[in-house]
């Protein structure tokens, strides 16, 4: 079963739960390269134990990590001769999701109690939310400023509190039994994470919270295509209505959250603009258009396998990226994009994108199979959360690089591996029961 008994849970080692909390928190403050080193060290120890014990490799895990490994082989092979730093950085971007998922998987195997792990994610998300809210406590006057000024002063917020919200929402009204958390603690965590998510004024965090909450509530358990169509239609109509009510070209609208929300569809629309102002306002759509232009100009082999790791996308003009303002800080070619699918299309071609989609689809399908069997059980919440992670990562890969982001989706990747181990263990247990 997903949940160990209380007595059994007390006998399980505590370090995996502590590791989940520490990794989720430290990812926000330490260099991502250092976190990768810690993850690889843990996986090395797990590999030694696995090899010496003679255990078989879980095919469910293989279905997730193999696509990333194949993408790496393609990117490294095709990109031979590219600038070494960009070449190796792309390899890390693509392999890192598989590493983090494996770490989550191993942590569950060391502590096979899904509730303990989920509580660790909730506590970690709450601690990060408190850290973020502390910035407002130190500088409360910032709340009277515009959305742009607030984010410049306190930052863009974090994704870990949104995952905590999704977990708490999935076990709503069952916190005591489902998460073994006193109600007052669960409510406190929920309110803190909700406040941090709202004050982050992040459209990405809003999307992650809404999509994840719907998946965690079982929205995608069945008839999902019809429901997805309804969601998309609702979002489009809402944004169009906001666009009609708000003049997105006005200075105040450009600095407000509502104005940015209204401008969202225009911002991600794939279009090649020819003036710097339009390019800056619609950067996500512009860089995707440039990536697609580069991709479509390739040979048949490049259409299939991409241009390899280290390839850069020509932006068509010099433009300041990030905080670079002087002429020396202007860039014409960039190695990464907000759109993770377009990024991978350039580096790994149509095959690379297909492999990525297959990995996330596999995660989703594994969760859905459990949900369809136990749609109303408390245990199915873990499977619904696996669906939530898969859908959230698929959506955010389109707008903020998602699984290829250096650290933003770390908690979701770690939770995916943890929940995958729990769900695959449940499936094997059910198969054993049927055979006995």
Helical content band: over 70%
Give the spatial strand order of the biggest sheet.
1-2
Radius of gyration: 22 Å
Number of strands: 2
The average pLDDT value, as a whole number, equals 85
Structural class: mainly alpha
- Distance N to C terminus: 16 Å
Reading the helices and strands in chain order gives HHHHHHHHHHHHHHHHHHEEHHH
- The outline comes out as globular
Continuous helix count:
21
Low-confidence parts lasting 5 or more residues at pLDDT below 50?
A: 1-6, 323-328, 429-436
Kindly estimate the percentage of residues that lie in beta strands according to DSSP. under 5%
Q: Describe the biggest sheet?
A: 2 strands, antiparallel
How would you describe the overall organization of this protein?
This protein is mostly helical. It has helices at 6-11, 15-26, 32-53, 59-78, 84-110, 114-138, 147-154, 160-170, 175-178, 183-199, 203-216, 224-245, 251-254, 257-262, 264-268, 276-281, 283-296, 300-305, 340-373, 380-399, 410-435; strands spanning 313-320, 330-334. Helix 6 (114-138) packs antiparallel against helix 21, helix 11 runs antiparallel to helix 20 (380-399) and helix 17 packs across helix 19. The chain is globular and about 65 Å long. It starts with 5 loop residues before the first helix and ends with a helix.
């Amino acid at each position: 079963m997903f949940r160990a008994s209380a007595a059994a849970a007390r006998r399980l080692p505590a370090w995996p739960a502590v590791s989940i909390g520490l990794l989720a928190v430290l990812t926000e403050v330490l260099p991502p390269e250092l976190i990768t080193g810690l993850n690889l060290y843990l996986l090395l120890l797990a590999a030694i134990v696995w090899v010496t014990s003679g255990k078989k490799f879980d095919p469910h895990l293989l279905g997730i990590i193999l696509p990333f490994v194949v993408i790496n082989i393609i990117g490294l092979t095709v990109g031979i001769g590219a600038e070494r730093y960009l070449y190796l950085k792309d390899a890390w971007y693509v392999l890192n999701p598989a590493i983090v998922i494996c770490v989550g998987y191993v942590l569950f195997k060391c502590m096979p109690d899904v509730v303990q792990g989920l509580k660790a994610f909730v506590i970690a998300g709450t601690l990060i939310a408190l850290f973020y809210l502390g910035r407002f406590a130190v500088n409360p006057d910032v709340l009277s400023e515009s959305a742009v000024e607030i984010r410049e002063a306190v930052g863009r917020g974090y994704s870990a509190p949104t995952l905590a919200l999704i977990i708490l929402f999935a076990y709503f009204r069952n916190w005591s039994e489902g998460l073994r958390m006193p109600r007052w603690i669960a409510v406190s965590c929920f309110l803190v994470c909700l406040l941090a998510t709202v004050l982050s004024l992040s459209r990405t965090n809003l999307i992650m919270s809404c999509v994840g909450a719907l998946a965690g509530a079982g929205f995608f358990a069945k008839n999902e295509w019809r429901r997805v169509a309804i969601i998309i239609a609702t979002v489009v109509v809402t944004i169009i209505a906001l666009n009609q009510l708000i003049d997105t070209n006005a200075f105040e609208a450009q600095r407000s959250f509502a104005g940015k929300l209204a401008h969202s569809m225009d911002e991600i629309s794939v279009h090649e603009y020819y003036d710097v102002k339009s390019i800056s306002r619609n950067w996500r759509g512009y860089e995707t258009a440039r990536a697609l232009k580069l991709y479509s100009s390739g040979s048949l082999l490049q259409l299939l396998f991409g241009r390899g790791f280290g390839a850069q996308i020509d932006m068509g003009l010099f433009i300041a990226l990030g905080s670079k303002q002087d002429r020396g800080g202007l860039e014409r070619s960039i190695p990464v994009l907000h759109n993770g699918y377009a990024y991978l299309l350039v580096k790994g071609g149509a095959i690379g994108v297909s492999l990525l989609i297959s990995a996330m689809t596999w995660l989703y399908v594994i969760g859905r199979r459990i949900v369809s069997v136990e749609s109303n059980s408390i245990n199915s919440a873990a499977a619904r959360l696996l669906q939530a992670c898969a859908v959230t990562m698929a959506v955010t890969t389109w707008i903020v690089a998602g699984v290829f982001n250096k650290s933003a989706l770390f908690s979701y990747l770690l939770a995916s591996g943890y929940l995958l181990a729990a769900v695959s263990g449940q499936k094997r247990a059910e198969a054993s029961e049927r055979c006995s």
